[in-house]
């Protein structure tokens, strides 16, 4: 049987596995029924007990359970073996030709890995990599912000919002309102309407000048004390609000300490996994032409990794279709149109000659063009 894709073959083997499992279970259930029937007969005073065991033995031999299960397992093993062979053929184990030989600084690598573990809350592992980097003085500066963050997040898991509210960076922000709202609802859910109203006057009233509409909705909750689940405000009780707030707090913490929300190690590895198939194919194609792609300054094929991996703006010249670089930067002409430097020099034939903009009647010289920075 031929399969169009590896997924089809995997699904075929998975189907065999499910069939084998169900058939094996049927055999086991049949054996169990026979044994239970034999036990019932043994307990009966009117049945010849000596004849029961030979009869049971005869029934089990006729069922031949071992042969049936072995046959099912053998068919499954054949499918698994073929799948393993095709996986080995389809996937290239040697990925060394898809990367460039870069002399990485081991200390920097250790710091990046330590930063990743600190972000995950694995501080002992992070400390190990800091010690490997021989830069133990960075433990405080790199570790401390994430340690503080995880103290806040762990407290939130226990429905304790005080550490988050005591953090100065949230004062007066939308995030403070969300924290205050959760705390207000916690008090109200406990049935203490008077305490909830007192809390609102103390902590929500100062935020009313900016978040009046949100606070007015919260005040409506006071009418539904002890029965918020059946009120028009039941949506406020969703646990998703706590999870979203934890994410927002993490993002704000990272912003305050000048770090990206995503771990640089995670971003790099994820981007590399997405780019690997294209790079392997490129290496095979160019290698067959006896050229070395790793010496190229720019890849000859597009590498679309998605918007989540676009951290800087890029400019593609509308004339040459080349992506701007340090050697070929984008240049703004007096008419407002932008071309790459090399395209402008080609149009002008010389830095002193005038040329007409390819998109409007404006006539300019290279001296009037200015480099722009994204």
TrEMBL record:
GO terms for cellular component: cytoplasm; GID complex; nucleus. Keywords: Cytoplasm, Metal-binding, Zinc, Zinc-finger. The keyword Zinc applies. It is found in: Cytoplasm. This is Uncharacterized protein. Residues 145-195 form the CTLH domain. Gene3D superfamilies: Zinc/RING finger domain, C3HC4 (zinc finger) (3.30.40.10). It comes from Kingdonia uniflora. Residues 317-360 form the RING-Gid-type domain. GO terms for biological process: proteasome-mediated ubiquitin-dependent protein catabolic process. GO terms for molecular function: ubiquitin protein ligase activity; zinc ion binding. It comes from the Eukaryota.
């Amino acid at each position: 049987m031929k399969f169009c894709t590896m997924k089809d073959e995997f699904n075929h083997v998975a189907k065999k596995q499910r069939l084998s499992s169900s058939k094996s279970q049927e055999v086991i259930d049949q054996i169990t029924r026979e044994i239970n029937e034999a036990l019932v007969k043994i307990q009966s005073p009117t049945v010849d007990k000596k004849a029961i065991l030979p009869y049971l033995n005869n029934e089990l031999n006729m069922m031949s359970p071992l042969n049936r299960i072995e046959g099912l397992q053998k068919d499954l093993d054949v499918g698994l073996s073929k799948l393993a062979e095709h996986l080995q053929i389809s996937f290239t184990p040697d990925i060394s030709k898809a990367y460039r030989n870069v002399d990485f600084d081991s200390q920097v690598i250790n710091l990046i890995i330590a930063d990743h573990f600190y972000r995950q809350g694995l501080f002992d592992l992070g400390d190990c990599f800091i010690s490997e980097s021989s830069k133990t003085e960075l433990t405080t500066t790199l570790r401390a912000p994430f340690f503080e963050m995880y103290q806040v997040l762990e407290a939130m898991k226990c429905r304790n919002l005080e550490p988050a509210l005591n953090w100065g960076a949230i004062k007066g922000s939308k995030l403070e309102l969300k924290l205050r709202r959760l705390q207000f609802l916690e008090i109200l859910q406990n049935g203490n309407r008077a305490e909830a109203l007192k809390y609102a006057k103390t902590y929500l009233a100062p935020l009313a000048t900016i978040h009046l509409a949100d606070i007015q909705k919260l005040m409506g909750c006071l009418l539904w004390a002890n029965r918020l689940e059946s009120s028009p405000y039941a949506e406020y009780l969703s646990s998703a609000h706590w999870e979203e707030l934890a994410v927002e707090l993490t993002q704000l913490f990272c912003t305050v300490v000048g770090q990206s929300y995503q771990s640089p190690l995670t971003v790099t590895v994820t981007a590399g996994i997405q780019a690997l198939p294209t790079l392997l194919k490129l290496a095979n194609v160019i290698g067959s032409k006896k050229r070395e792609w790793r010496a190229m300054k720019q890849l000859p094929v597009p590498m679309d990794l998605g918007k989540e991996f676009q951290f800087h703006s890029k400019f593609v010249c509308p004339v040459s279709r080349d992506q701007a670089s340090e050697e070929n930067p984008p240049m703004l002409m007096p008419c407002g149109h932008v071309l790459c430097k090399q395209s402008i020099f080609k149009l002008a034939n010389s830095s002193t000659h005038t040329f007409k903009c390819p998109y409007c009647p404006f006539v300019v010289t290279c001296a009037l063009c200015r480099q722009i920075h994204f």
